[in-house]
């Protein structure tokens, strides 16, 4: 095959893949299937072990579980094409909101096999995969992204106990930095949205417990709302130290730190993002 023919084949295959990806974003099952052969073999992330992409009913049902369009992006696309056979590899980012309000965002590996018949390229094989942690848990490593640097046999994070506060704040970056200064927060992990500015997720440890942050995402029906109706409690040994540090960082005093009627040393602060915090320490009894 000549170099010109090879470049033409690669361009044609790329056009098929781009149209297929756009159909996925629009949740257009007919358009998705139009780019695949009737006997297309699919190894997807979901059961069963193998399936056929000609199952339009199953694809429609899956699309129907998502609210609004899908985020579906291919990166590092590599295509090799001969006269009648081609394959492509890519890293794929899938994101969106489920009907129950749950948010999904993950990277996975994609390989596509294509065959040309009658001058038209069709997808004949689709293979999706994610690595899993090699610690015996068999947990899928869906928290990776193209920039992740993870030891292949590193253990997966242990489950976190209790109820964890997950805050949507106007500026998650600024909030995380402030909580570091005011409450000694330690950052464990952060993940940015496609715009490289907003945080999809930020995991902090404050006083030994987990606190999660994210920016608002109105395009996914998750707008910012003023915080109300809750207080984040910090039960500490040295309330005066925690209080002075938070006030010095810029927290506003809304209830002075003093011995409350129920017997604890207690006070409340409001951070610059409108969230209320309580500093509390048990009063030590004499003798």
UniProtKB/TrEMBL annotation:
Residues 160-282 form the VOC domain. Pfam families: Glyoxalase, SnoaL_3. It comes from the Bacteria. CDD domains: VOC_like. PANTHER family: BNAUNNG04460D PROTEIN-RELATED (PTHR34109), VOC DOMAIN-CONTAINING PROTEIN (PTHR34109:SF1). This is PhnB protein. It comes from Sinorhizobium kostiense.
């Amino acid at each position: 095959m000549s170099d010109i023919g090879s470049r033409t084949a690669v361009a044609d295959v790329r056009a098929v893949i781009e149209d297929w990806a756009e159909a996925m974003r629009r949740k257009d099952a007919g358009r998705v299937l139009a780019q695949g052969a009737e006997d297309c073999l699919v190894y997807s992330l979901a059961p069963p072990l193998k399936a056929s992409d000609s199952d339009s009913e199953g694809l429609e049902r899956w699309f129907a579980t998502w609210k609004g369009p899908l985020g579906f992006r291919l990166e590092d696309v590599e295509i090799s094409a001969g006269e009648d056979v081609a394959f492509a590899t890519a890293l794929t980012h899938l994101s969106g909101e489920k009907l129950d309000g749950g948010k999904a965002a993950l990277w996975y590996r994609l390989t596509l096999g294509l065959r040309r018949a009658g001058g038209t390229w069709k997808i004949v094989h689709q293979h999706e995969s994610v690595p899993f942690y090699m610690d015996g848990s068999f947990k899928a490593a869906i928290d990776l992204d193209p920039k992740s640097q993870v030891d292949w046999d590193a253990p997966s994070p242990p489950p976190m106990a209790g109820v964890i506060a997950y805050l949507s704040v106007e500026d998650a970056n600024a909030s995380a930095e402030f909580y570091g200064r005011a409450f000694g927060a330690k950052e464990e992990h952060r993940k940015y949205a496609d715009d490289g500015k907003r945080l999809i997720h930020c995991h902090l440890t404050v006083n030994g417990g987990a606190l999660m942050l994210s920016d608002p995402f109105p395009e996914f029906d998750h707008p910012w709302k003023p915080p109300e109706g809750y207080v984040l409690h910090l039960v500490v040994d040295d309330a005066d130290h925690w209080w002075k540090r938070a006030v010095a960082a810029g927290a506003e005093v809304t209830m002075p730190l003093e011995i409350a009627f129920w017997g604890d040393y207690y006070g409340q602060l409001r951070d610059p993002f409108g969230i209320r915090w309580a500093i509390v320490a048990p009063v030590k009894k004499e003798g």
